[in-house]
From TrEMBL:
GO terms for cellular component: endoplasmic reticulum membrane. This is Lathosterol oxidase. The keyword Metal-binding does not apply. One of its GO terms (molecular function) is iron ion binding. It is found in: Membrane. Keywords: Lipid biosynthesis, Lipid metabolism, Membrane, Steroid biosynthesis, Steroid metabolism, Sterol biosynthesis, Sterol metabolism, Transmembrane, Transmembrane helix. It comes from the Eukaryota. It comes from Octodon degus (Degu). Coiled coil: none annotated. Its cofactor is Fe cation.
Length: 297
């Protein structure tokens, strides 16, 4: 994060915002700058990527699903906007420790061993964070914690990309904590860390984008939108972030209903076709039970 802070100081804060007598390495000034940069970056990344995903990837027919809430997109965005500034406070505290040199982030890459280590660090970052997020996420579903912290994110049974960051502030920070812990334990290049931090936020948006297509060969391994949508629908399954590994180890893996032709898109399609074939059919008498919508006789 010191790259970002130095860039912001050089081009904006030092010439236009702070008095010239205020040292750039003053901890109070760095805290204020990091709060500004972190919030601005988070909002730009969220609105840019979620908006692109919503208009170019998300299947809007999902909005016809009976579990899609009234004004849901507006409510997802509002919840996110209210939560992000609070999430940024403990996040900035960790960024500040990085800037002050307490992490194992490094600058230079030595050839050839440095490049090999860089590749290994990316792989280990993904598996390390996936493991911790799995257990943190599963812990947030504990009955003593869920209703106080994680329940707001499960309001969205049929999420859109804008639901990706609609968390209770404590929930949002806890599930991002593994990303920050990693560079304090393992060496990681500073630019790679920034790239991975952006990538995991984009991934978080992508698993809420309603695009359930996954290459057949990757279906057993990758935790995609189909898996995570079932997590929102069925509650006790598919806690993982990128991979299905820990769900399989922890006994919480569920083959996505979308892969079996029973997902929310399949339901919307079947209802639409049935209504077209039988316009007089009344779908008011329906109930949703255990992830499946059924007609009440």
């Amino acid at each position: 994060m010191d790259y970002v802070l130095n860039y912001a100081d050089y081009y904006f804060f030092t010439p236009y915002v702070y008095p010239s007598t205020w040292p750039e390495d003053d901890i109070f000034r760095q805290t204020i700058s990091l709060l500004i940069v972190t919030n601005l970056g988070a909002f730009v990344l969220y609105f840019l990527c979620a908006t692109l995903s919503y208009y170019f990837v998300y299947d809007h027919s999902l909005m016809k699903h009976p579990l899609f809430l009234e004004n849901q997109v507006y409510r997802e965005i509002k919840f996110t906007v209210q939560s992000m500034p609070w999430i940024s406070i403990p996040t900035v505290a960790l960024f500040l420790l990085e800037v002050k040199g307490y992490s194992k982030l490094y600058d230079n890459i030595e050839f050839p061993h440095g490049w090999f280590h860089l590749i290994v660090s990316i792989i280990s970052f993904l598996f390390f964070t996936d493991m911790l997020i799995y257990w943190i996420h599963r812990g947030l579903h504990h009955k003593l914690i869920y209703k106080h912290v994680h329940k707001p994110h499960h309001i969205w049974k049929i999420p859109t990309p804008f639901a990706s960051h609609a968390f209770h502030p404590l929930d949002g920070f806890l599930q991002s904590l593994p990303y920050h812990i990693y560079p304090f334990i393992f060496p990681l290049h500073k630019l790679v860390y920034l790239g991975l931090y952006i990538a995991v936020n984009v991934w978080t948006i992508s698993i809420h984008d309603g695009d359930f297509r996954v290459p057949q060969i990757l279906r057993p391994f990758i935790n995609g939108s189909a898996h995570h949508t079932d997590h929102h629908l069925f509650f006790d399954y598919n806690y993982g972030q990128y991979f299905t590994l820990w769900d399989r180890i922890g006994g919480s893996f569920k083959n996505p209903s979308a892969f079996e032709g029973k997902g929310p898109l399949s339901y919307v399609k079947s209802v639409t076709e049935e209504k077209c074939s039988n316009p007089s059919n009344d779908y008011k008498n329906e109930k949703f039970h255990n992830g499946v919508l059924t007609k009440i006789e």
